Amino acid sequence: MSNRTLTAIDGLRVGHVHNLDGPTGCTVVLCPPGTVGGVDQRGGAPGTRETDLLRPLHLVEHIDAVVLAGGSAYGLDAAGGVMRYLEEQGTGYNVGVGVVPIVPAAIIFDLDLGNPAIRPDAAMGYAACLAASADPVAEGSAGAGAGARVGGLMGPGFACKSGLGSAAVDLGDGLIVAALVVVNAAGDVIAEDGAILAGTRLPPDGDQFAGAMALLPHLARTPSARPGNTVIGVAATNARLTKEEANKMAQMAQDGLARAVRPAHTMFDGDTIFALATGSAGPANVSVIGAFAAEVTAQAIRRAVETATPLAGLPAGADIRQPAG
């Protein structure tokens, strides 16, 4: 499999638009007809749109696009541009007098990284649709990853630049599972061997990782840590899943977040993972699909910091030393 990103799944298209003067941006995932959606949201500070309808017991099963954006709650405006694009294509839920595109969205907080007046809007969402393609997904400071950072426990000045990452795995027999994740975590991103890939830097020089778990005891008596951190993304498969199974896949994909980010799912995170099942490869065991959704989610999170480059005064994690001892 030459393409090891989300677009390895036939029919999915991804478009990025960003403004590095922000820096901020948005990423759109356009879905083929009949894609079943699900969602799993954890953490105490979500910024989302149209998530309730994706849960079991609700009417709508199929999803037309997913929007991931910077700009905090302002960035949810990007979904309006995506709806306009899809309406022009005649894509959406048929309501008799036209269509209503189903476009869930989630955002990260990047307003304090640069110019808070620059944020994604409907025009940027529309432009991301025009840019969407089935090419391998651009990673790092692209799209919604433009303003992402990790390691905000000591404030933005001691964080590392992060971004957007993607990964995919071929299970054989035509089955593919993939993920695309925007990583804006408060904590550290951890390699499989436990080494810190990117995270909070130790004052005053910031040339060494502090280790988020070592810092947390000092915050135990504070009212709250710094708000405005989250990991948002999409886990997808070409298997045919029910809506309940898609939600289970999203739930299991969150396990990958917990493997790669330390700590995760706190009250000052808004961690949200959408699930997409295009169905072209036929039915499959959701437990197996979910297990590999967790794997590719963890891989995509690590890719997000490994492909990030310095921006807005923040270094890449590769340039920082591991904590002593």
How would you sum up the global shape? globular
**Overall pLDDT confidence:** 94
- Give me the CATH architecture, please: 4-Layer Sandwich
As an assembly, this protein is: single chain
Arrangement of strands in the largest sheet: 1-2-5-8-4
Question: Could you explain how this protein is built, in words?
Answer:
The chain has 325 residues and is of the alpha+beta class. It has a single domain, classed as L-amino peptidase D-ALA esterase/amidase (4-Layer Sandwich). 20% of the residues lie in helices and 24% in strands. It contains five helices and 17 strands. The protein has helices at residues 78-88, 122-131, 212-215, 243-260, 286-306; strands at residues 13-19, 24-30, 36-41, 48-49, 65-69, 93-94, 99-100, 105-107, 149-150, 160-161, 164-172, 175-184, 188-190, 196-198, 230-237, 261-262, 272-277. The chain has a five-stranded mixed β-sheet with strand order 1-2-5-8-4, with helices on one face. Strands 3-17-15-12-11 form a five-stranded mixed β-sheet. A three-stranded antiparallel β-sheet has the order 14-13-16. Strand 6 and strand 7 (99-100) form a beta hairpin. Helix 1 (78-88) packs across helix 2 and helix 4 (243-260) crosses helix 5. The chain is globular and about 60 Å long. The mean pLDDT is 94.
